[in-house]
Every structure is written in structure tokens, then in C-alpha cells.
Write a structure and sequence with these properties.
It contains 9 helices and 7 strands. It has 285 residues and is of the alpha/beta class. It has one domain: Rossmann fold (3-Layer(aba) Sandwich), CATH 3.40.50. It has a 7-stranded parallel sheet with strand order 3-2-1-4-5-6-7, sandwiched between helices. It is globular, with a radius of gyration of 18 Å.
């Protein structure tokens, strides 16, 4: 089965995986809604395909802003063949630190709620047409909690379950839901990681695999596949063994620490480095 991918909406299109997806789709002649927070990056992408792009700068967790984006795109270019909810952030989290609670909330807002607000305006039009694809970029981290990374793992674990639910709901409609579970991608989101990253992939390679999976109507995709097998094998370990193995690994940098990435929209009470980054781009995985 080869589904058309001539009209796409991509969130988190400013860098990493999102920009790779946009570049490849545009190179194939598609019309692409470029959704992100860095206007300059999006303008550079749009310049490669005049007349086939529109730029949107909403907060993906803002349902009103995402509704306005969708209405404009539908009016200008019609119902998309695929909506790829790619925007996401990551950051270390320490439950003992009260100042980290806003980080947890914001990660959930972007990584989990943001997917629902991205999909919602397009579900009815896609169902009325009888086909389309809703693609959620989750993570293998959603399958197992990692020390110091509870907020990110919780957001991706919740996203996996949300996508499973949505897939069952939409099955009779002809609209497909695809869950993409990448491992580690070579992007700004992983650049500061201090732990081992087996199976590290280039964003362009991941983007090619995702677009192929969408075209063939896949329900799930693990990148790279061998890392999915490793995750399955680790799941067979007794919990104490698994915990002991993970505790030997360095933790994800918390907001404001060296190696951390900006999380847009954090309250101003966060450390100065994070307050200054509040308007920064949402980093893709």
C-alpha cells in the first residue's frame, strides 16, 4: 500500500528531525505546513519551495492557536495527507526539587498535550474524506522509566498509550495512526547527554524511514529496529537488575545545568538561563 504524502503538517519543524522531515517532503514536491517557534529557520525552509509552504509560530499546547493554524492551512491547501506531531522537549527532573515541578508540567504540555492539540482540528476533515495519517513521534524512553528523566519518560509513555487509544478509535474511519519510537537521534536535544547512546541515528536517516512508514500505512515504527529488540530484551530482566543497571548511567541534565536544552514557556521564576531561553525554539529529538 502506498498512501499519498503530498500535503503535510509538521510541528517542531525548526531543527533536528522536524527540519529533516520538512526538507525531504519539500524535495518530493509536497506542500508543507511548517510549525515551530524559530521564524528564521522556517523562512529558510520555505524559501526552498515558494508557494508550497506556510509558516506558523504557535505554542503547540495552545489549542486556540493550533485551531487557527489548522483553519488557515485547510482553507489554503486543503486536508493534509499526514499530520506529523514532532514538537518535543526534554530535560532532567528531580522530584525532591520543588523548582523542577514546572519543568515536569511544561514537558507534559508540549510532548503529550501538544500532540492532541495538533491532531484535533484535522481529525474530522480526515474522517470525512476517509483517509489520512496522524503520526506521533514518541520515544523508546516511553517504554521504561530512566533515572533523572521521569518527566520525559512519563510524557512519552503517556503519548504511546494515547496513540494506541486513538488508533483503535479511528480504525473504522480509514484514518491511520502511526506511533514512531525513535531511540537516540543526533540533534540538539541529545547533544548534552552524558550517557551512552547506542544506535545513535542521523536525523535525515530517521526522516526517510518515517516518510516511508507513513507511505505504506504503518502503525508503528522503531528506530533503529535493533534498539527496539534490545529494549524488549531488557524488559525481561527482573526489576532490581534493571534498576541497578540504569543507576550506573549519568542522569539527564536538569534545566539550567550544563548540557541542558531550552524548554520554551517555563515560568520566569526559573533560573536566569532558562528565563532567557523561554522564547527559544522547541528542539526536536
Amino acid at each position: 500500500m502506498n498512501l499519498p504524502i503530498e500535503n503535510l503538517v509538521i510541528t517542531g519543524a525548526c531543527g533536528g528531525l522536524g527540519s529533516a522531515l520538512a526538507r525531504q517532503a519539500l524535495a518530493r514536491g509536497a506542500r508543507v505546513a511548517l510549525v515551530g517557534l524559530n521564524a528564521k529557520v522556517l523562512e529558510a525552509l520555505a524559501a526552498t519551495a515558494p508557494g508550497r509552504c506556510a509558516i506558523y509560530l504557535p505554542d503547540v499546547s495552545d489549542s486556540a492557536a493550533m485551531q487557527a493554524m489548522a483553519e488557515d492551512w485547510l482553507a489554503r491547501f486543503g486536508v493534509p495527507d499526514a499530520v506529523i506531531a514532532n514538537a518535543g522537549v526534554a530535560g532532567g527532573f528531580d522530584t525532591a526539587e520543588a523548582g523542577d515541578l514546572p519543568v515536569f508540567r511544561r514537558i507534559l504540555e508540549i510532548n503529550l498535550l501538544g500532540v492532541a492539540t495538533t491532531f484535533q482540528p484535522f481529525v474530522a476533515p480526515m474522517c470525512a474524506r476517509g483517509h489520512g495519517a496522524l503520526v506521533g513521534i514518541a520515544s523508546l524512553a516511553g517504554r521504561r522509566g530512566l533515572p533523572g528523566n521521569g518527566a520525559y519518560c512519563a510524557s512519552k509513555g503517556g503519548l504511546i498509550r494515547y496513540l494506541q487509544s486513538l488508533r483503535a478509535e479511528l480504525r473504522p474511519s480509514g484514518v491511520r495512526v502511526c506511533t514512531v519510537n525513535p531511540g537516540y537521534l543526533r540533534t540538539a536535544l541529545t547533544a548534552g547527554n552524558r550517557f551512552a547512546m547506542p544506535g545513535l541515528m542521523a536525523p535525515d536517516d530517521a526522516a526517510s524511514a518515517i516518510l516511508r512508514a507513513v507511505a505504506r500505512g504503518a502503525h508503528t515504527l522503531v528506530l533503529p529496529r535493533r534498539l527496539g529488540w534490545l529494549a524488549c530484551a531488557l524488559d525481561l530482566l527482573p526489576e532490581p537488575w534493571h534498576d541497578a543497571l540504569l543507576l550506573r548511567q549519568p542522569r539527564k541534565a536538569r534545566a539550567g545545568e550544563p548540557g541542558s536544552t531550552p524548554i520554551p514557556g517555563l515560568p520566569a521564576a526559573r533560573p536566569a538561563a532558562q528565563a532567557a531561553a523561554a522564547d527559544a525554539d522547541v528542539r526536536e529529538r
